What we know:
Layout: E1 7-11, H1 16-27, E2 32-37, H2 40-49, E3 53-56, H3 62-76, E4 81-84, H4 99-127, E5 130-135, H5 148-168, E6 173-178, H6 186-189, H7 206-219, E7 223-224, H8 229-239, H9 241-256
Parallel strand pairs: 1-2, 1-4, 2-3, 4-5, 5-6, 6-7
Helix pairs in contact: 1-7, 3-4, 4-5, 8-9
Amino acid sequence: MNVKDKIILVTGGANGIGRALCERFHADGAAKIYVADIDFENAERVAVSISGKAFRLDVSDEANCKLIIAEILNESGRIDFIASNAGIGGAQGSLEVENEVWQKIYEINVLSHVYLARAAFPSMIERGAGAFLITASAAGLLTHPLAAPYAATKHAAVALAENLAIEFAEKGIYVSCLCPQGVKTDLIMGGENNPNGFLTVDAISAEECADAVIKALEKETFLILPHPEVAEYIVKKAENRDRWLHSLRKIRAAVLNSKNI
């Protein structure tokens, strides 16, 4: 998978990882990049800077997703690659989080990928070629000790990516799953009470995350880990789940007590 001369859609492309992906794909010679985000003003800024096109997109709205895919197919004739990157951090807590918040996080972090794949895969299958990247999180492989809705929906996003990779490989669609740990975006850098603030210690830049994506695409790797240590954590978690949970309890306590970890 090489992005050169490809028609690409990036959701959540206005900021953070999405913006870095757009800029890197442009630098590597993509033919056209469509930047989609609910933050249309910033999406348009990114699109102008890379000679692309911006769309206002609410990824939790399936009709909106269908419309954007149809417009791109009508204009460009094909979509080679979708970076389904839009996502939200969600709320701190678990049982106390209101149902409406749980539902919204689920719609954006999980169902948005379903909506985009459902709309775009038929044209990819017809051509016998296409690529689909789901941005999940290391929290989808490990967990998040303070934000259950985020952890649960990112686990679901990883599972969805695995199922799509299994089902559609024989039809010519390469599916991958991006699972970074801390990336220097608003998600972890935003404020004193941010439940993701403990991830800033080993955080990488969004550009470094985009570099990892490019390297993985070239090898058509399924699991993209910008933080290599996450692979080691996965093994430790599998080897002794009780010890793993104990270590996460300690991290949770340290964060809640504002200790250095």
